[in-house]
Fold:
Amino acid sequence: MTVRQLVEQLKALGAREGGVLLVHTSFRAVRPVEGGPLGLIGALRQALGPEGTLVMPAMTSGDTVFDPRSTPTQGMGITAELFWRQPGVLRSTHPGSSFAAEGPLAERICQPQPLSPPHGPDSPVGRVHHLGGQVLLLGVTHSESTTLHLAEAIARVPYAVSHPCVVEVDGVARTVMVRETDHCCAGFQLADEWLRARGLQREGKVGSADARLSEAPDLVKVTVEHLVLDPLVFLCSRGSGCDQCDAARASIRSADSLDDPSGTLRERQ
Structure:
């Protein structure tokens, strides 16, 4: 697949020239591509044009002091790993949940943010949403979409799990606990049916990959509506054997016990 063909596919899918585009991708699903992962990055840049801003996750393990100039990503894929290393690309400074961006709005998107929540309104994902950006999933599903964690933060879901993260304070490394709406994320795939039902998701092929494109405000709005009705909709059912979702449910009980030592509050089912 040539870069030119990829650009045509991206534009046909609805990638907006001059817009903000948050991309989660598996190059293995997209390939073969002329120029490899860098060719895909070039196609995304061309589709957005010089006034567009490209954003990708650049998250790390969080178990060492984070340096945005050198700390490698973890589990983000080769495209995201190469993207943040390119000339002119900025990287945010969250020690575990950084993002990379290039374009006129990159500096705004990569501004400092609170440690928790990592994907809240005042984060790169939140800023993409505020700027009316788009979310593109290339060869991955909504289970990899950080924008759904933003929706959880906005909806104030009752679960939050803390994970250790190394930060540097006055030149000294120390470990702090960062609370986030963590679970297995398999339930995020419900967003497919929610968006399709309203005609808010465009689907097609980019290279060899199945691609999904939605407007970040649409994705967040629809998801928040469902979370208001059922705050636990994304969690695997009790007894399913999912340790991550069980930990999220346990966090609700822990929070209840702090607010209600008598134990009269009951976890929502």
